[in-house]
Design goal:
The chain is α/β, with parallel strands linked by helices. Helix content is 45%, strand content 17%. It is built from 14 helices and 13 strands. It has helices spanning 2-14, 16-32, 62-70, 91-100, 119-130, 149-154, 177-201, 215-219, 233-243, 264-281, 283-288, 294-304, 308-333, 345-360, and strands at 49-54, 77-83, 105-110, 135-139, 143-144, 162-171, 210-214, 247-257, 366-368, 371-376, 379-382, 390-391, 396-397.
Length: 409
């Protein structure tokens, strides 16, 4: 009798992810199918803008990414690149931009004197000081945008209660299995969680590929200089602006990023690093992810009560809801092409995501810029004795040095 009660209790818990999936569907429908805003500023809100781009080396398709920012349908803006040295391979591309877009204001700033742990954030601190304009658009080096990008992300700042604007991003295209799996994970998992968070608690974060804000909003919390030794700067910028009482606006607008997951080990390393960071920054929220693991709980339910009816109910409901939410976000929301062909990767992603989540509890350090750190009170603290590039105990291989925070990319 007691065993039966325990089994029923566990079967009830195993249904929790289905409640979460239904909430994802509800949140997605509310976000992507809401009517467009009726009020438009007249005249349009197009203040002068400084686009800030911290750079370190060359990303794939870098020139086309940069050039897309030079093709903006926007009256007055400048583009600032910050590099660490005069021999950075990106500089010839910047000179090419200047030659091909002579009407654009393009500046290069050199910044190699900082001892900050987070080199990207140190460069952003310098860029913020050097920018000519009050309205700032922070964008990663691997981002590609449409000509209406600046008008779209800057417009919400016309409202004084909006402190920052961010938006979704999708891949320019996947060349490897790891990149296809990452795309599925972004659509079916990461963005699903973002939409639920927005519905329940509002947007209290920002996504690194695009943050539009005012210099005053950054200065209110000390600016990027206050974040130079912290991971997840994009999340923190949104959180700190929201804590000042301002709204962070998430737009139903997408930009492109160039995929760079060459192998499954790349995907594993970057995702695990992010999960370890999140475990330190949002410990209870990280633990709560256990109730979003639908595949694992469905399998557990079948193991607890191995009957055809249980298998049909749990695995069937899991498949139906995961398909529906991935379609709603991927196709209807983000217009991701070929999403049906990727549906079979959803359970593969869920199995990987569950494994990564478990692994994150067994790591006490992260690898950042080819060095190992512990996260202590939200700060990256160098470990006295550096570990080799490959941690043979865990198989955690260092990812190539990247400038962006790789929040979920």
């Amino acid at each position: 009798m007691v065993q039966r009660m325990v089994d029923y209790a566990l079967l009830g818990i195993a249904a929790f992810p289905f409640i979460y999936y239904l909430l994802v569907l509800y949140s997605s429908l509310r976000f992507f199918r809401r009517p467009p805003a009726a009020e438009k500023s007249d005249p349009p809100f197009t203040p002068p803008v400084s686009i800030l781009k911290p750079i370190r080396g060359l990303d794939p398709d870098a020139y086309e990414n940069f050039a897309s920012f030079c093709r903006q349908d926007y009256p007055n803006y400048e583009i600032l690149f910050c590099v660490g040295s005069s021999d950075d391979p990106v500089l010839p591309l910047v000179e090419r931009l200047r030659a091909e877009f002579p009407s654009r204001q393009i500046r290069v700033i050199f910044h190699n004197g900082s001892r900050a742990t987070n080199d990207k954030v140190a460069k952003l601190a310098r860029l913020t000081r050097e920018a000519q304009h009050e309205v700032l658009v922070i964008s990663d080096s691997d981002v590609r945008v449409r000509p209406d990008y600046l008008r779209s992300v800057v417009a919400p700042l016309a409202h004084q209660n909006v402190g920052a604007v961010t938006c979704f991003y999708v891949s320019t295209g996947e060349k490897t299995f790891a990149e296809r799996l990452q795309t599925v994970g972004m659509i079916s998992d990461f963005y699903a969680g973002i939409l639920v968070a927005r519905e329940l608690d509002g947007v209290k974060f920002a996504l690194g590929p695009t943050i539009a804000t005012r210099r005053a909003r950054l200065n209110d919390f000390g600016g990027y200089a206050a974040l130079e030794n912290r991971p997840a700067d994009d999340l923190l910028v949104g959180r700190l602006i929201a804590e000042q009482g301002y709204q962070v606006e998430l737009l139903p607008y997408t930009i492109l990023t160039v995929a760079d997951y060459h192998s499954m080990s790349d995907l594993w390393a970057k995702r695990l690093r992010w999960l370890v960071v999140m475990r330190h920054m949002r410990p209870w929220g990280h633990i709560g992810l256990v109730f979003t693991q639908g595949l694992a709980w469905a399998i557990a339910a079948v193991a607890i009560r191995p009957t055809p009816l249980t298998a049909l109910a749990y695995l069937g409901f899991y498949a139906a809801l995961r398909t529906a939410m991935t379609w709603e976000i991927g196709r209807r929301g983000l217009s991701e092409p070929g999403i049906w062909r990727k549906m079979l990767l959803v359970p593969v992603w869920d199995a990987l995501a569950f494994t990564l989540w478990l692994a994150s509890f067994f790591r006490s350090q992260v690898r950042w810029r080819n060095a190992d750190y512990r996260i202590v009170e939200g700060q990256l603290v160098p470990i006295a004795t550096p570990q080799p590039t490959t941690d043979h105990h865990s198989g955690f291989r260092a990812a190539p040095e990247k400038l962006d925070s790789e929040a979920e990319r």
